[in-house]
Amino acid sequence: MGPLAGQGIISPEFDYIIALLIGIAFGFVLEQSGFSSAKRLAGLFYGREFVVLRVFFTAAITTVIGVILMEYFGMLDMNLVYVQPTFTWSAIVGGVIMGIGFLFGGFCPGTSLCAVSIGKIDAMFFFGGLFLGVLLFAEMYPMFEPLYHAQNLGGIFVYDSLGMSRGVFAALLIIMAVMAFVVTYFIEQYILKKPKKFNYEFITSKPYHVAGIVIALIFAGIVAVTPTRKDSIMKYVEHTISQKTMSFQKVSSVELTYLLLNPDNQTLYIDIRNPQDFEKLALPGSVNIPFESIMNREWEDFLGDATKKKIIISNDTLFAQKAIVIMTRLGYKHVYMLQDNFQEFQATVLQFDAAHSKFSKTEQEYIQKAGKEILLLIEKRKKPILEKKVLSKAKGGC
Amino acid sequence: MKTQKQEYINPYIGGFLLGLVLLASIYFSGRGLGASGAIKSFVVSAVDFVAPQHTQNSEFYQQYTGGKPSALKSWLVFEVLGVFIGAFISGIVSNRMTLKIDKNPVVSSVKRLFFATIGGLFFGLGAQFARGCTSGAALSGMGVLATGGFITMLAIFGTGFLFAFLFKKQWVY
Question: Based on C-alpha coordinates, what's the Rg of chain B?
Fold first, then answer.
């Protein structure tokens, strides 16, 4: 399963060779597509040349389709793929500055390098300018830093930002790209003073283009119905729970009490209740990961620690079981659940009531004492620590 | 004009191939393509070489220097080296090697080169803010459906269309 480099299947040294080969292919394709000419690139903004739009969007939808299908067929673990973090304002400001740079220079960094390579002197100056720009940023970093780090949304996906399903968004993107291709073709013909009539004869005169559009639309349909990892995990969870194919390791209230009072630094207490309940009362040292967000990538480092035991705290035994199925599926190890739910624990230990207790005399004494101590610990640490992973991965991007 | 156009491959085939290259990059190395990141590596290494004192005191350079492996030994530097080689091969194969300034005949060479430099400067600066350029942030970001990629793409091309009228003399000829 890809990516190969992230899992040690490809050594870091060999990854550099891959980088070189991919770069060669990248440069070759860019140059072959005519991206080494500033006039062709900047012509887009004047409705003269749509080559950038065509190449760019065809590449984008090809990649989107490929990524979705590779993920579905288990060829690609998106958790290991670099997804650039979104810093809204910095992304907008950077884009606007680059847009102006595009108009001044007629290149972008990658294309300018291609043009340098085939001997365009203007591209060499553009390329030199890039260094000045980066240097300017580096030297003025203290001034830019607040904007650079403003509004960090993490490695979020555009379909989540828009509140759509991934499939619907990807399908719409493909349809929009195809429409853009068709519309720009007619604009181009109009500007070249060869306006085409859109009729049956015209369609039959372009068999390859029509076939391309049909194929793109078929793929739009396919990606629209391809479930995301989240959807397929939830399906797996429902199946596992209903078929009872998994046994759950449990920790009793008394065992949990003992663990809480004798911290071993080897146990994580994962509270999957909602944040409101967690605010009201939570176990000392526990971390709130609401059930809905347990799959999120930000918890990868924290929950992925295979040396630690994880105990799931929940109001609802069914949710605890589901959480365990999800976590096991994600490859997290040593996951336990609180045998009785959190209310039970509260009643048994924290609000100890000897009259309803099923324990022996010595146990009762211990539980009663322990319950008070735990309450004291809770008082002491009113603000539980959240160990969220910072989402900007160190490597990747530009 | 017409004969030159036919030298280039069909843009849809070009785009499809570019998508495959990007997919290969994601599959093998778990990351997208890029260009501006390598330039940052060069700048950091150069400044560190010329003025090590300066890099030690700067928050920006500290992220990449000081006991860490050389900034030049990075994936993007190798990839960008590849881009240069790949474009060179393409230039030779398609007989497009030249040594000339591409410009509108009515624009002076000095002006074209000056504007190109300014353009590079803007692009270098903007790519830092956006955490990548057209390939690293916009294309690769869109490929994995990252929100930032779409924002940056819209900002680059939106700005381009919005202010294009100011630069018409440069590009329409």
Answer: 19
